[in-house]
Amino acid sequence: MTLHFWRPWIDPHSCGEGAQPERYALRDSGQPRYLAIADGDQLIQRVTDPALAWAFHTHERAVIAAREISQVFGQPVDVVKLS
């Protein structure tokens, strides 16, 4: 007998949009400001509201983006889980 545990919120075919999707955001280290994409010019901007932050559906992708952005900014960028 084999047990298969299916979790819709981490199903790769649903892009993390299941019943309980995980969301991660990028935050300036040491400051309560989150990184977001500006509407008009699509540049990276800082926002104080986590609801406006650039959200990632997987921790892995958020870490990759944080590493790339920290190389450009020259300072560390934190990955935080949004509730």
Helix and strand arrangement:
Elements: E1 23-28, E2 34-37, E3 44-47, E4 55-56, H1 59-73, E5 77-82
Antiparallel strand pairs: 1-4, 1-5, 2-3
Q: How many beta-strand segments?
A: 5
Structural class: alpha+beta
Unreliable stretches covering 5 or more consecutive residues: none
Number of helices: 1
Question: What number of domains?
Answer: 1
Largest sheet report: 3 strands, antiparallel
Whole-number radius of gyration? 15 Å
Whole-Å distance between the termini? Answer: 36 Å
Helical amount: 10-25%
- Spell out the helices and strands N to C: EEEEHE
Mean pLDDT: 80
**Global outline:** globular
Q: What is the spatial order of strands in the main beta sheet?
A: 4-1-5
Beta-strand percentage range: 25-35%
Describe the structure.
The chain is of the alpha+beta class and 83 residues long. Helices cover 18% and strands 27% of the residues. The protein has one helix spanning 59-73, and strands at residues 23-28, 34-37, 44-47, 55-56, 77-82. The strands form two sheets. A three-stranded antiparallel sheet has the order 4-1-5. It has a two-stranded antiparallel ribbon with strand order 2-3. β2 and β3 form a beta hairpin. It is globular and about 30 Å long. The chain starts with 22 loop residues before the first strand and ends with a strand.
